Each structure stands twice: as C-alpha cells, then as structure tokens.
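During the reporting period the student researcher (J.K.) took over the structure-prediction task from the postdoctoral fellow and processed the backlog of single-chain submissions. One of the processed entries is reproduced below for the supervisory committee.
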Amino acid sequence: MALFDFRQKTGAGTRPGPDPGGLADFISGYSIEVMPRTAAKIEDFRALLPAGTRVYIAHIDGTPIEDMVSTAKRLSAEGFEVMPHMPARLISDSATLGDWIARYQGEAGVTGALLLAGGVTEPRGAFHSSMQLLETGLFDRAGFTRLHVAGHPEGNRDIDPDGGHANVEAALRWKADFARRSDAKMALVTQFAFEAGPILSWVEGLAAAGIDLPVHIGIAGPAKLQTMIRFAIACGVGPSLRVLQRRARDVTKLLLPYEPTELASTLAARKAASPGFGIEQVHLFPLGGLEAAATWAGRQGGPASRSTTTASA
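J.K. obtained the following structure tokens:
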C-alpha cells in the first residue's frame, strides 16, 4: 500500500530543486495544532505529520478536560510531542490546575504546555493571565520542561483595549524575565498574521527591547478565503487582515484558496540572511484542515509524513 508523501514532485525520482530563500529549512520542524473534535476525525496522524511533530491541543471553552487528556494520550502514543493549551480564564483555581497537570502527565506523559489567557472575556475563577499560571510554581514542581506563552505581532485588544501595545509589551518583559529564572525551555507562539512587514518589525522590536524569547511564528495554513476571513476576525487579527480583504475584492482570486507561501518565503529569506534573527520555527494553524496544512508544508520542501514505500501483504 502506498503511504502518503506530501513532497511536491518535479519529475519521477527527483527531489525538490534548490531553495535559495531557505523556505524548506524555515518550515522544517514546524508545529501544528488540533482540537479534540477534529482529532477524532483523523484515523492516524502518522499518515499526515512527520514523526515527532510538536502538536498543540487547543482547549476551546466547553471542551471537557477528559477529551483533552484523551487526545493528548492518543497523540503521545502515536509518537508526537504533545503541548496542550492551558487557558487561564477557564481554570477555576490552583487545585484544578494541579489536577489538569497531573492528568496530562500521568495519563499521557505530557511535560510541556502552552499557557495563555484563553478565549473568554471574563475569568471563570482565580486566573486571568498566563503569568498567574506560571507564578503558581505547579508546572515546575511537576517537572514540566517546556512552557510556551502567547505572542501578538499585531497587538491584542483583549490586553490593550485602546489598540496600543503597552500592556502586551510589559507582559512580554515579565515573561522573558521569568524565562531567565526558569529551567524550562520557553518560547513565544504567536497569533497568525498575513503581512511580513509587521511580523519582521515586531521581532526586531523584541530584540531591541532585550526580550530574547525564541519566536515560533504563527502562519495560517491553506483555506478557502471566506474561511480565512472568518477565523481572522474571530481571532482578532489586526491590520494585516487587509491582505485578505484586498484579495476578496479581486474576482479572479475570490474562489481560490489562500496559501501562505508568499508570507513564509519572505520570512524565510530574512532568516536565511540573518541566521540569528529571532524566529526559531513555524507554527501552523490548520484553518483549512490538518491535511491541507501538512500537504502545503511538504510541497515547500518541508518534511513529509513518511517516505513513499510499498508495504508487502
């Protein structure tokens, strides 16, 4: 049986051509995220994702912790590095947080998490920010070795209602200082955007401010334009939403799916020219589906799910 191979072929038996912009290297080692309800529809993640891919599990309001842990257990058993979301505003108290950590660790072998405020306006209990979760010390005592936090290249009106960046920047300084005091590997996983300019300026600004957390830059995977615009508005994407709006006005492109190749290529070229630039890796948001995102990554020369092989009966 032929297994999936998502590398784009240039001819029988050939490999992708030279990549002077460094796109293949830039995408290599990408992470991706799923929700329990979408994960349940996937028969085998190993047919879609490269071995060892870091998979974040998005915790949406209303998702039972049992479903989150079950998904984490399954992904871990299939050989992936699991990073569940820990949404502060959905966690009622320290006891609940401790229970979640213990269940993820004990049942699924999880040793890392993405800490974020969460997608609700009003906290359900004692926590309203990822910083409060870090301050509990529960992750450190449980031996979590990787703790990621959220980044917002275009700002976040939930944190800065006036549209500025003061509160976001203050939080980033706090998190960078915490990282220096922590044994855990920390990084910023960002919201997706659609223009390279604001992303590049934001990463440069982090360096200028002495915030040295590695950046895992969020990129939206291929999706129908209408789907992309809907997610972008719901997720609070900032000025770069205009890229999609301009595309929507072009009737020749209206029915074509959005692909992030131009954006990723520009970021990759900057990284290739300046290897010390703060973007460490790519995080894919599979807004058009996991298979579409993995296929796109493979076509750019990124790692395929498996080599094409033939299994004997």
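The committee noted the following: The CA atoms of residues 27 and 238 lie 24 Å apart.
J.K. will present the remaining backlog at the next meeting.
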